[in-house]
């Protein structure tokens, strides 16, 4: 064992001899301190015995440590060994403590990140995004509006992690809406919030749910503890005189044409009508195809309307309008007209479909102008079905014509009847009834009687 009083000069001159992996130069001042030289480096080391076992610990590179500090560190380690403490065990404990502190810091950062990212607001946005991706644009718009008006205004609750939101907080939001006299809005808000939490709760197990809902970690639905609020069914129907005034108020603007076609077609849902494209109208059979995605359907159901003459003429005019618009575009671009099949029937500029709220606002404007009891599109739809029932149109035919209540095992698997003849006869009779209303004529008993399907 080579031992000398270490000096900077001796350390600098000390090298690992050729043919050996390492060499040691021991200090006489701090006997447990040595310089270890290898082919490419020199470092201070400490070596001692504890419980008859050799302990060797690297102090550090000679370029990073000065000699006095290295001796002081060697003496400190020697004191530990003499007290029965293994410095390597202390190193392990320190490393474990640092790793634990780092893990805790990262966990805290993740928790803070989750708290800021997976909030109630974010859950509401993710749920409405899911509705849009599944083609439920009308539901998505209504849901987003309810959340914006009645959830996001509670900033503290909206910014809280969704999985920490309590039933008491949800109840406070619903109660505020209800106490403002908005009974229906309160019930709808509760329903939308429940649906959002249930979607996130099911997401880890239901492949039909979007994966981005899983990260919210929802394990229970805080809305479950809040009683449902019964929504009273609407009962407003327009009288024949009111319907006459409504028809006369309709002009030639595109929203008015949408309102007129919905009426002539028996009271169709506006959101479905506005999604119709040029290719959805078959001029040979005067049939308009709509897609009903309402409810819990995984895919929209085809809804065919064999139109009566006035409605068919209106639909044909919309097709001609789309072709004319394409002709003008092609002429301006100096190219041949393209296929118009993919264009929307109801579109101001041809790029996007008219939003469903536009005709609704126009109907409300007409309602105000008539100075009668207010009505909306649902009331017009209800009026159509009520009058159709009064004309002797069967319940089954009305259900097929208005595309509602068509579900269950019988409808899904066994009843394949298209009801085309019944629907066409009903719409022809309905146009005749509207003509009579517009002229101020009274109905002569049952206008038509159709067999039950």
UniProtKB/TrEMBL annotation:
Biological process terms in GO annotation: DNA integration; DNA recombination
Entries under InterPro entries matching the protein: DNA_brk_join_enz (IPR011010), Integrase-like_cat_sf (IPR013762), Integrase_catalytic (IPR002104), Integrase_DNA-bd_sf (IPR038488), Integrase_DNA_bind_dom (IPR025166), Integrase_recombinase_N (IPR010998), Phage_Integrase (IPR050808)
Domain Tyr recombinase: 233-428
Top-level taxon: Bacteria
Keyword DNA-binding applies: yes
GO molecular function, one term: DNA binding
PROSITE patterns found in the cross-reference section: TYR_RECOMBINASE (PS51898)
Protein's UniProt keywords contain DNA-binding: yes
Keywords for this protein: DNA integration, DNA recombination, DNA-binding
Protein family according to the UniProt entry: Belongs to the 'phage' integrase family.
Protein name: Phage-related integrase
Taxonomic source organism: Aromatoleum aromaticum (strain DSM 19018 / LMG 30748 / EbN1)
UniProt gene name: int
